[in-house]
Specification:
The protein is α/β, with parallel strands linked by helices. It is built from 18 helices and 14 strands. 39% of the residues lie in helices and 19% in strands. It is elongated, with a radius of gyration of 34 Å.
């Protein structure tokens, strides 16, 4: 902002709570979860969900594990009303799930809401009225505190009276002083107490007091102070459930909820992936998986997050951002070379350690959770572009193509691949990485190619082999032979005798190709040229001996290209 614009804003007033206790608390158990996707989330969509889409979404929420689901505002439209009726009449509500509806403190709307709920086994009637200073002054034309509280009291009476007309349903009452976060705390408390006086909750039959951060005006620590102040001062605390409902205007909705739980909150209202008005509601997926990452079971199942995301994107016609915590396309992706190297080392070490210590806690650099626990795969963790390093390329070749490159080969291959990505000006796919490796490091046959190869083991000299090979060098065919203590050594000596050798072999590795044919072997040979350069080459063949020979020839050809 320009300096001239900043003068119109004022800091949010702090809460006088010098002996606050919430900073010393820890979250050790989950709250009661309530999804408001089908009401608060749906009303914020450019194109609201159809009844059929809402039915699919409701089924998704049940599958995830929500036991309380706000299903709509049935007094607002026929679509909302008929959706609630279909849930009830078609027996779509499991016995352990309680549906919730929202209603303003107006009698005809309350009557219509109860009509929509006829036949429900259990239901939460959520009453609200705006209470903030801004709402009272602007929306309601300087309405007094007394008049505002009277609306809440009358609404609570109607809610109770209509519930008595339908005794077959197990009713729970919920009250929200809307825009709680911008309401004077003493007045919010006054309104809550007035509603409680009407409803007369008990420890056995609690009411819900929802304290919505309808607009996120303040820092999350101030919100926590507000929640702790209410929890301390509310009467009959054991007869109420304190519910949190944060929005994300300042980008700290998750933090405000987590601190609000530390401050005494019992229940959380939010949506999948944070859909909601303006910058959105609380993202329940993030809060729940944050708890999971600290070893806290939440009762919500996000183990197949990709499917959940697909239903959300289809029904809501929204896209989960690529950097959305846990669910975004790129959140388990490392482009930085140093990150890739650390991730590869961490995953490799963990694989070794859990073979002997299965209960070992998760600990891999840059990955707060195991992606597999939410239906993601390791194959997508590391992607290669011009910023990538040797570790990432080696990881992809290992995990995707079954090629376990020697560590000292990583820099040579890694530089080649990320130089290629730089030339392309884009990320390389795992298939492109595999193809580039095959074409530039493996089974190379120019300028030197082996067209025939035969080994003969010496009987007189134990351990010695004779190599006879037909080779083509720069288009000229030649037959070479040599002896050595193994196939590669014999071939090197054959090259030396033909005056084609200007290198020494400095390293050799081999392994079976993981995930490939049982008959395939991979070999890697490092050579050092007469001018001191070290070059790796790779070979793949059904014969381990031939794979080693091809790796040597590949290294030779790279040296002479």
């Amino acid at each position: 902002m320009k300096q001239s614009a900043i003068s119109k804003y004022r800091p949010f007033a702090p809460v006088a709570l010098a002996d606050r206790k919430w900073p010393e608390q820890s979250i050790t158990a989950p709250p009661i979860w309530c999804s408001v996707d089908l009401r608060d989330g749906n009303q914020a969509l450019p194109t609201p969900m159809s009844v059929e889409e809402k039915l699919e979404y409701f089924s998704l929420l049940v599958t995830v594990g929500f036991k309380q689901i706000e299903v709509g505002f049935p007094s607002a439209s026929d679509t909302e009303f008929h959706f609630v009726r279909r849930l009830i009449e078609e027996n779509r509500i499991p016995d352990d799930v309680t549906i919730q509806i929202l209603v303003q403190a107006r009698e005809h709307l309350i009557a219509k809401s109860y009509e929509s709920l006829i036949g429900a086994k259990k239901a939460i009637v959520h009453l609200y009225n705006p209470t903030s200073t801004l709402q009272r002054r602007v929306t309601f034309g300087n309405m007094s505190r007394e008049e505002t509280c009277a609306i809440a009291i009358q609404g609570a009476k109607w809610v109770k009276e209509y519930a008595e007309k339908y005794p077959q349903t197990d009713w729970t009452f919920e009250y929200s002083p809307e825009s709680f976060s911008d309401t004077e705390l003493d007045f919010a408390l006054e309104c809550c107490h007035a509603v409680m006086d009407v409803w007369q909750p008990t420890p056995a039959k609690k009411c819900i007091l929802n304290l919505p951060n309808t607009v996120e005006w303040c820092m999350p620590n101030v919100h926590a102070d507000q929640i702790e102040w209410m929890c301390r001062n509310i009467k009959n605390r054991d007869s109420v459930v304190i519910s949190l409902h944060t929005h994300n205007d300042r980008g700290t909705g998750v933090a405000a909820t987590e601190l609000g739980l530390l401050a005494g909150g019992d229940r959380v209202e939010g949506t999948l992936f944070g859909n909601g008005e303006r910058t959105g509601n609380l993202d329940i997926v993030t809060v729940a998986l944050n708890m999971n990452s600290h070893g806290i079971a939440t009762g919500l199942d996000f183990s197949d997050l990709a499917t959940i995301r697909n239903v959300y994107e289809r029904c809501c016609r929204l896209t989960v951002p690529e950097r959305q915590p846990y669910a975004g396309e790129l959140v388990f992706t490392a482009f930085s070379g140093s990150h890739q190297d650390a991730i590869k080392k961490g995953l490799d070490l963990r694989e070794k350690e859990i073979s002997t210590t299965p209960e070992l806690p998760w600990g891999v650099p840059y990955l707060t959770i195991d992606p597999r626990d939410i239906g993601r795969s390791y194959e997508a963790i590391i992607r290669i572009n011009s910023q990538s390093g040797k570790g990432g390329v080696a990881y992809v070749l290992d995990r995707e193509h079954g090629l376990d490159l020697p560590k000292t080969m990583h820099p040579q291959v890694g530089k080649f691949i990320y130089d290629l990505a730089d030339q392309q000006g884009r990320e390389l796919s795992v298939d492109e990485i595999g193809t580039a490796f095959q074409e530039n490091f493996c089974n190379l046959n120019s300028p030197l190619a082996v067209t025939d190869y035969e080994l003969e083991h010496h009987t007189a000299e134990r351990g010695q082999v004779l190599c006879r090979a037909s080779v083509v060098y720069n288009g000229v065919e030649e037959t070479i032979s040599g002896s050595g203590n193994g196939p590669i050594n014999a071939f090197v000596n054959a090259l030396d005798m033909s005056a084609m050798k200007n290198f020494t072999v400095t390293d050799y590795r081999s392994h079976a190709v993981r995930g490939g044919s049982d008959a395939n072997a991979a070999a890697y040979v490092q050579i050092q040229s007469s001018d001191g350069r070290t070059i790796w080459g790779a070979g793949i063949d059904s014969s381990i001996e031939m794979a080693g020979l091809k790796a040597l020839v590949s290294a030779y050809n790279i040296l002479h290209t």
